[in-house]
Structure formats: C-alpha cells, structure tokens
Specification:
This protein has about 500 residues and is of the alpha/beta class. It has 15 helices and 15 strands. It has a single domain, classed as Amidase signature (AS) domain (Amidase signature (AS) enzymes), CATH 3.90.1300.10.
C-alpha cells in the first residue's frame, strides 16, 4: 500500500499494525512523517473533548514528534541507499502513559498534590523507546495515581471506550487502550499492579502484557513492590512482543530488573493455530466464584473449542478461590505499601482527590489494621501455591480477563457493583475490583500473562482472555496468544469511528 492508494489514506495508515508500518518504512512505501501526520489527523478527528469524547491523552507532543519523524525519514532514506540496519522502532508513533516520566514534561499522575511537577529525567522505558527510534507523540490518561480500573480524574476528565462511549476503557492504563483501539497510536506503554494493563486491553480489544516481575525496569522505590510492573500494549500479539523486547532487560536504576535487553518473547518456530498443537492448556472460567457474564463465558468456551480444533488439549481447571479471598489478599498487600505511599503523597489535598482515590486509601489502611505483613505474605503464598498446583502438568492456563461486560465511564463504584452469577441470580460485590480476574496474577507476579481479545460482548464492548504462563516462561504465553489471535475475528476499528 502507498500513502496515496486510497482517498482515505489516513485511516489506512493508522489501521496498520506496528510491524506492518515498520516494513513499509523499510520498503519506502510510505514515510514516518506520513504515518505521524495520519495519526495526528486521526487524533483531531476522533479524540474529542474531556467530558464527551474518547479523551485518551493528557498531552499531545505534535511539534516534537514531527521533528523526530523528519529525522526518521532521512534515516530510512540513507539506510535504503546503503543497505544498512535501522533502530527497531524507528519512526513509529508510541504513546506513553503520563506516569512514565518524560524529561522536561509534567509528571502529575492526575493528582492535585503534584500539579505542575516536572520530570527531571526520562523513565527507563521512555529512554528505551527513544533509543529504539520510537516517536513519542502523545501521553495517555489514567486515573489518579493509577489506582482505579476506570479512567477519569478531576485533572484530565473522563476517558471513554471507543467501542461504546458510555463505557470505560478500563484502567488504570485506560488512555493507552482507548488510543490503540481508536487508531491514535501504533504502540503504547502501560503499567500493572492489579490488572491495569490487562483490564483496558480486555475492554478495548487490544493486547496487553504483564511481564514477570522485574523483567521490565521501573522506578524506585515502588519498583520494589512485587505486585507491580510496567508493560507494553499493542493492537496485535506481534506488536506487543516487539515493544516488550524494547522495554525489557536489566537496568542500573532498578536493582530488581533482570534478563537480556532486546530479546523478543515470541521467538518461536511456529505461530498461528499450529503453535498450540500438542500443548496441554488449562481452562478456568471463573477462578473460583467470579461472576462471569454469559457473553464472556460463551466467547471463552468458543475459543477453547477452537484451540482443541487446532490440536491443543484443553484441561478443565477449578481454582479454590473466592473474590473475597482475592480482595482480602491484595488489599492486605496494598495496606502496607501502596496505600501509605499514596496517603503520604496526597496529605493536605484530600478534599481534592477523586472519590475512588479516597476509597482506595481508606480500604488499604483498614486492611493494614487487620492483617500484619507476615500474614499478608502468607496470603500471597496461598494464592501462589494454589496456582502452581492447578498448573502442574499444563503448558499454560486460560481464564477471562474481565467478569463483567463493561464499567460505566464516569462511575466511581464506591458501593461496589451489582452483577449476576452463573445461574442469572443477582449478586452484589462489595468492591468493584472483584469484577476483574486479573489481580491473582499480580500476587503470582513471576508468571507472565498476556491478555488477547476473545470476541465482543452483548453491549458492544470487547472481551478478553488471559494466557497465564509458568514463572518466567514468556515464550509460551506469546505462543498461545498468537494462536488465539489467529482464531478470533475482531473488527478493525470500532464502528462509530469508521
């Protein structure tokens, strides 16, 4: 395809995968400047305002990005002339989460307490993206301090799901998911402490990867929190693996970081459906008693049958968990690390916090009063042991990403969430985080987890499936994820944007 091959070339260029864009740059079919211009035009066309629009960004860096794109144009021209290699992301638009500091730019995390703060240096993943030739053209929204699974804040307004603007794209990396789904970036950075990469991936029909703890470097001191991690999001499994390779590897600023830099986790001999032939893959539809919506259950079961047809053995698994146990476990952990850190940072500005932030700090503090650090570690160990036992003899485990079809874009869910159980009976969950099936794998955070689209729900919002690997086995989750991607047909863009 060339940039002039269609009257609507901007839409065509922004619909390309990252890997296809890079191939086009190398071949000279179109230039980084053309893709960037198309991406910026797409943002102007579909992003909208902070209250009614998709509103995926805290900041657009158009001028800096255009200068970088022109340099990339020249670099590709020289490389083609001299048959020379280029940096792996050269010329590709990448949107970074606002919390991933960019030197000289604001680093506010949506909080009144940090309004006007400027990053003194780049976050490690930002440095690696820039070193790889990526063009940071925009920074994406999140809830305050990334502490919610919806994305709205007094600072940045409401971020909405491009598939259904009444719905949230999820959180906390909601701006990243919305930007990818709407064609406003090629790749995006995210972070994950209870599902903040995988939840928006599930709700926006994109791919999100939670790497094993330490595989992608973070910033101290909270980089030492073994539930958390930064990660990549993309529109395809291969794109997500590409960004994972750029972000991953030992870094001197994070002494918990490990492994080689620049190694793709999807380097396998086979891809597509054949990748799962002969594998034993576990399937747990509910992770105990999560109230999984019928459309999500149906999409997951349909996909399991397709994997069987591709030669995998699907093994039913039933983990002995409850949503109450998982919530107790994670908030005991947050009560001794993240909650106190947030309380200290926001002291004196409590009246200007979003309601969900106040709720999170209060819940974490209450959990710390009832569960000591050793008891919290014991709860973690129980979850980890249960998962290891359930996955014994399996190559990977599948489970839905989310239990509910959507969250309302502007809601706080201070009183929990009303759902329906497997029999259709109404059920109230005391904390809306119980509607997501992601946080057990932050407790077991050495396990890599990839969220891949599994279909569409009855409310026009995508559904996702998590591929859970054994500790540090990154290649397996990308291997299975590649097969899933080839078996699930998803629309290219949300209908309201086409």
């Amino acid at each position: 395809m060339t940039a002039s091959s269609s009257a609507d070339s901007s839409v065509e260029l922004t619909s390309l995968s990252a890997t296809d864009s890079l191939a086009g740059f190398r071949a000279g079919d179109f230039s980084p400047s053309e893709v960037l211009d198309a991406t910026l035009a797409r943002i102007r066309s579909v992003n909208g305002d902070a209250q009614t629009g998709i509103n995926a960004f805290s900041e657009i860096l158009a001028d800096d990005a255009r200068r970088a794109a022109r340099r990339a144009d020249d670099a590709y021209t020289s490389a083609r002339r001299e048959d020379a290699p280029v940096a792996v992301l050269l010329g590709l638009p990448v949107a970074t989460k606002e919390k991933h500091g960019l030197a000289g730019r604001t680093l506010e995390q949506g909080l009144a307490a940090t309004r006007g703060e400027i990053a003194a240096a780049n976050h490690p993943v930002v440095d690696r993206i820039l070193d790889a030739g990526g063009i940071i053209h925009a920074r994406t929204t999140s809830p305050e301090f990334s502490c919610a699974t919806v994305t709205h804040s007094p600072a940045w307004g409401i971020t909405r799901n491009p598939w259904n603007t009444a719905a949230s794209p999820g959180g906390s990396s909601g701006g990243a998911g919305a930007a990818l789904a709407a064609g406003m970036t090629s790749l995006a950075t995210a972070s994950d402490i209870a599902g903040s990469t995988r939840i928006p991936a599930g709700f926006t029909g994109t791919v999100g990867y939670k790497a094993p703890f330490g595989r992608i470097p973070g910033l101290p001191p909270l980089a030492a929190d073994w539930y958390r991690g930064d990660g990549p999001m993309g529109r395809t499994v291969a794109d997500t693996a590409l960004l994972a390779a750029v972000m991953s590897g030992r870094h001197p600023i994070d002494h918990g970081s490990w492994g080689a830099h620049g190694v793709r986790p999807d380097a396998i001999a086979t891809s597509g459906p054949d990748a799962v032939r002969g594998l034993r893959i576990g399937l747990d539809l509910t992770l105990g008693d999560y109230p999984v919506a019928p459309s999500i259950r149906a999409n997951t079961e349909r996909l399991a049958r397709a994997l069987e047809g591709a030669g995998a053995e699907i093994v039913p698994v039933s983990l002995p968990w409850t949503t109450e146990l998982i919530t107790r476990t994670i908030f005991a952990h947050f009560g001794h690390i993240l909650g106190p850190a947030m309380a200290a940072l926001t002291a004196g500005t409590e009246d200007r916090l979003a309601a969900y932030t106040r709720r999170f700090i209060a819940d974490a503090a209450a959990a710390a009063q009832t569960t000591t650090p050793p008891e919290s570690l014991a709860l973690d160990a129980r979850i980890q042991h249960d998962l290891a036992a359930a996955m014994s003899g399996l190559d990977a485990l599948l489970t839905p990403t989310q239990a509910v079809e959507m969250l309302a874009a502007s809601a706080d869910y201070l009183d929990g969430i009303d759902v329906f159980d497997a029999d259709g009976a109404p059920r109230h969950l005391g904390h809306y985080w119980e509607a997501h099936m992601t946080s057990p794998f932050n407790v077991a955070n050495r396990c890599p987890v990839l969220s891949v689209p599994s279909g569409m729900s009855s409310v026009g919002v995508p559904t996702g499936i998590q591929v859970v690997g054994h500790p540090f086995d990154e290649a397996m989750v990308f291997r299975v994820g590649s097969a899933i991607e080839s078996l699930v047909e998803m629309p290219e863009f949300p209908a309201l944007l086409t």
